[in-house]
């Protein structure tokens, strides 16, 4: 009796220890490595997808995810020669991850710094047509993405995905699936750092590596981008324009703040009710020709995708027309190039027509004041925490350098690290319980 228990128990324990080790160390064999050779923190999360990846460009040729790419690589040197930065406005870089508005620094009137300054830049913040909802998801691809794609397919809806380059090279198959399903792909930079804190050259490196990653994975050279944290000023805008990019933000009050749910700062119900209230307020406005709105959501955690399904169903039931940004803007050329083959120089070979029929064309920024001046209000779509709350949240979840404060203001790296950590803790707990149970059975 004892010996049979032991013979069953020992292999079980070994198996658990192995699981624990792979959980803790990631999978060096399949993990993209950073320049220093350390396994990527996302190794575990990306393992299933990496295994089935057919991308012809190995992840190791890309810079490490989460870091601003080095300017020294031959690729970046080449890109810097192709982009004319000589006329860039002389606006100093901001500080902070992300920078916060308000006290301590004077706003340069020429900088038109979003989200801290009110000014009229030509960033896209609305959909031109009435009752049109521009659907966007940031920070993917991730393990949460497939469920979202499945849902959108079922509902026959197209969204714009603002992809992080460092995530694309870890989930190239998901980026490919998105593009093959007719979604609109766009850039959300390589490492999700606030662009106003970077140099002009670093912005080029962030954008071009992401462009390459998406091109290698899907054959599409993107033209649209969303700045991480919505952080953009006239210097950044200039550099982006030199590379042909169109900046897309989101409409005030249509930030779902969904990224706060996994951090337990906001319940799913609160996010749901808040967003539905914004939709009701929008529908109640009878102004003729009022433009549609652009929402901000994330396909970074399952709970976000779950919320997205509820919100989309709600919007559709309220007769809103849900479209990608390319479609809502009726842009017949949402990409700079398509059918690019990895390893070959990319050339423009055509365009992708919008998949929906245009309605009446009205333009204008007719929504409630886009972007407040201060960082301390907590109502409305762009709610921010007080510095004290930020500090608390930061220490709680990400360590003292964290910035959990702005809309889209999580640190994607730390956030996914946190999710992986939770996963590991759960595994360890399960293993411990099995271990004790095993001992008890002896
Ligand atoms: C995110 O966290 C990582 C790891 O702590 C850090 O290296 C990186 O600079 C952070 N990025 C931002 C935008 O705060
Ligand atoms: C949506 O449109 C349908 C068909 O026109 C109509 O019957 C329904 O009442 C509308 N629903 C809402 C919430 O406006
Ligand atoms: Zn983001």
Automatic annotation (TrEMBL):
Protein name per UniProt: Peptidoglycan-N-acetylglucosamine deacetylase
Region feature (Disordered): 28-68, 351-384
Organism: Entomortierella parvispora
Domain of life: Eukaryota
GO molecular function per UniProt: chitin deacetylase activity; metal ion binding
Compositional bias of kind Low complexity: 28-40, 48-60, 374-383
Keyword ATP-binding in annotation: no
Gene3D superfamilies on file: Glycoside hydrolase/deacetylase
Signal peptide: 1-26
GO biological process, one term: fungal-type cell wall biogenesis
Positions of the NodB homology domain: 131-323
Keyword Signal among record annotations: yes
Any one Gene Ontology cellular component term annotated for this protein: membrane
PROSITE patterns noted in UniProt: NODB
Keywords: Hydrolase, Metal-binding, Signal
One Pfam family hit: Polysacc_deac_1
């Amino acid at each position: 009796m004892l010996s049979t228990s032991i013979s069953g128990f020992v292999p079980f324990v070994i198996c658990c220890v192995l699981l624990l080790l792979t959980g803790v160390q990631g999978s060096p064999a399949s993990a993209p490595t950073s320049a220093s050779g350390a396994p990527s923190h996302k190794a575990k999360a990306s393992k299933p997808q990496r295994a089935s990846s057919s991308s012809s460009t190995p992840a190791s040729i890309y810079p490490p995810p989460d870091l601003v790419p080095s300017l020294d690589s031959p690729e970046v040197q080449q890109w810097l020669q192709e982009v004319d930065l000589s006329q860039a406005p002389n606006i100093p870089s901001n500080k902070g991850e992300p920078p916060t508005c308000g006290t301590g620094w004077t706003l340069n009137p020429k900088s038109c710094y979003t989200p801290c300054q009110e000014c009229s830049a030509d960033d896209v913040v609305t959909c031109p047509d009435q009752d049109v909802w521009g659907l966007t998801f940031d920070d993917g691809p991730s393990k949460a993405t497939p469920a979202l794609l499945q849902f959108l397919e079922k509902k026959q809806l197209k969204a714009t995905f603002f992809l992080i380059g460092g995530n694309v090279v870890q989930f190239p198959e998901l980026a490919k699936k998105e593009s093959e399903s007719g979604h609109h792909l766009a850039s959300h930079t390589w490492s999700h750092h606030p662009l106003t804190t970077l140099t002009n050259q670093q912005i080029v490196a962030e954008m071009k590596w992401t462009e390459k990653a998406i091109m290698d994975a899907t054959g599409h050279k993107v033209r649209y981008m969303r700045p991480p944290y919505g952080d953009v000023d006239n210097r950044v805008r200039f550099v982006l324009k030199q590379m042909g990019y169109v900046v897309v933000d989101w409409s005030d009050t249509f930030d779902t703040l969904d990224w706060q749910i996994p951090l337990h700062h906001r319940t799913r119900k609160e996010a749901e009710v808040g967003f539905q209230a914004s939709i009701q307020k929008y529908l109640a406005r009878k102004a003729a020709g009022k433009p549609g709105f652009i929402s901000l959501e994330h396909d970074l955690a399952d709970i976000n995708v779950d919320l997205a399904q509820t919100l989309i169903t709600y919007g559709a039931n309220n007769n809103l027309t849900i479209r990608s940004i390319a479609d809502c803007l009726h842009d017949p050329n949402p990409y700079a190039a398509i059918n690019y083959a990895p390893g070959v120089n990319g050339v423009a070979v055509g365009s992708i027509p919008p998949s929906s029929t245009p309605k009446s064309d009205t333009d204008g920024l007719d929504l409630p004041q886009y972007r407040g001046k201060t960082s301390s209000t907590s109502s409305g779509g762009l709610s921010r925490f007080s510095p004290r709350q930020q500090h608390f949240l930061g220490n709680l979840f990400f360590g003292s350098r964290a910035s959990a404060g702005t809309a889209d203001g999580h640190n994607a790296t730390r956030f996914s690290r946190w999710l992986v950590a939770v996963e590991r803790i759960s595994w360890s707990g399960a293993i411990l319980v099995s271990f004790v149970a095993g001992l008890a059975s002896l």
